[in-house]
Specification:
Elements: H1 2-7, H2 15-33, H3 40-65, H4 72-92, H5 96-121, H6 126-149, H7 164-201, H8 211-228, E1 231-239, H9 242-249, H10 251-268, E2 274-279, E3 282-288, H11 292-307, E4 319-327, H12 333-349, E5 355-357, H13 367-374
Parallel strand pairs: 4-5
Antiparallel strand pairs: 1-3, 1-4, 2-3
Helix pairs in contact: 2-3, 2-7, 3-4, 3-5, 4-5, 5-6, 6-7, 9-10, 10-11
Length: 375
């Protein structure tokens, strides 16, 4: 876990807290096991302090990992209460049962809060659900230990009292320490896997699909449309005179234009569209279910809106659009791109800042028009 914490991307937070917590759990177990062989201030106070601190660090790690505000004040307060209570019941008013009850109540609060965080924010991750379930079980067992301790005198023997509930409590705690550490590692690795998969499918500058992801989206869309019957449409969009923009305003400003176009295009395209950065200043939009009229209306609306400068910090820029549309049975990515590229070439040849349609024709299909109208 320490290795993970050092080498994970900076946006995956909390792994280091989990790692330190796991180390301190081990220290706590050693100190508590040496009770009677070392001074009480080290075994009782130090051991329980480490136990509360380790669980607090696990809670902090989970909150940071899932993007919540870390509860440092809560953890510090729990530590302070535990130390004061244990010191009081060790030297001023000695009570073995009182010490155990104090620590168990604090642990139950931390376990409960940890359970809530993981089960609420990690519900889409099986590994996180496993860890959350383990903390839920430990919370229930700890609460049961507290309830059964009142009036029974079962905790007078302290940590190693021989009653059944205490044995279950200790066994569950040891098992949870191991499985939670393994579980946290799996949760972190799964987050890294998801992030790497996402990065492999997304253009890092614009946040749009990259070409690889776009080709996968085309295959799925084509299979769906072939079963249902219908057309596939492709818009190839090129930002006009982009090299001149870069030369005049710098590449940083050019990147800002690419991002600006991406955000505005995403806002205008229907929800069933797949928009990708095809390469450089060229973008591709794939739309299942299309009609010539709706495509032209959508493309003209996009072209005219892009020509309107809505960001004073950016230079005005325009785009040219080539449209291809064909029956899904014939709509391989090669044919779509070839036809759309020919239409885009005509748009550039005709003065740019315009829309050109492929020579083929689409049958009337109102699905895209309705989707566009709903935007």
């Amino acid at each position: 876990m320490f290795s993970l914490g050092r080498n994970f991307p900076s946006n995956i937070r909390g792994v280091g807290n989990w790692a330190i917590g796991a180390l301190i759990v081990s220290v706590a177990a050693i100190l508590l096991a040496l009770r009677g062989s070392i001074p009480d201030w080290l075994s009782v106070i130090g051991g329980n302090f480490c136990m509360i601190g380790s669980m607090g660090l696990w809670l902090i790690g989970s909150q940071r990992f899932f993007g919540c505000s870390p509860s440092w004040r809560f953890v510090i307060l729990m530590l302070a209460i535990d130390v004061i209570g244990l010191c009081w019941m060790t030297w001023i008013h000695p009570s073995v049962a009182g010490r155990a009850l104090c620590t168990n109540m604090i642990l139950a609060l931390i376990y409960g809060r940890q359970t809530f965080v993981i089960l609420r924010y990690g519900r889409h991750d099986d590994s996180a659900m496993f860890v959350g379930t383990m903390f839920l079980i430990q919370t229930v067992i700890t609460v049961l230990r507290i309830v059964t301790s009142f009036g029974s005198g079962s905790l007078k023997g302290g940590l190693l009292s021989g009653d059944l509930v205490q044995a279950i409590y200790l066994g569950a705690g040891a098992f949870m320490s191991l499985t939670s550490t393994v579980g946290f590692t799996l949760v972190a690795m799964n987050r890294l896997r998801v992030q790497l998969e996402h990065q492999s499918l997304v253009d890092p500058l614009t946040g749009l699909l990259n070409r690889r992801a776009f080709l996968g989206a085309h295959l799925k869309a084509r299979e769906t449309m072939m079963r249902a019957g219908g057309h596939l449409s492709l818009l190839l969009i090129d930002l006009d005179h982009f090299k001149t923009v870069n030369d005049s305003h710098g590449h940083m400003k050019g990147d800002e234009i690419l991002v600006d176009f991406s955000k505005r295009a995403v806002a205008m395209l229907p929800r069933n569209a797949h928009l990708a950065r095809w390469g450089g200043e060229e973008f591709a939009a794939l739309m299942p279910g299309s009609s010539r009229e709706a495509l032209l209306e959508l493309a003209e609306a996009l072209r005219s809106q892009i020509a309107v400068n809505k960001n004073p910090s950016l230079p005005t820029y325009t785009c040219s659009i080539g449209i291809a549309c064909m029956d899904s049975r014939d709509a391989t990515i090669e044919r779509l791109v070839k036809d759309a590229d020919e239409a885009l070439y005509r748009a550039k040849r005709n003065g740019r800042d315009c829309v050109e349609f492929t020579k083929g024709a689409c049958q009337i299909d109102s699905s895209l028009a309705e989707a566009f109208a709903n935007k």
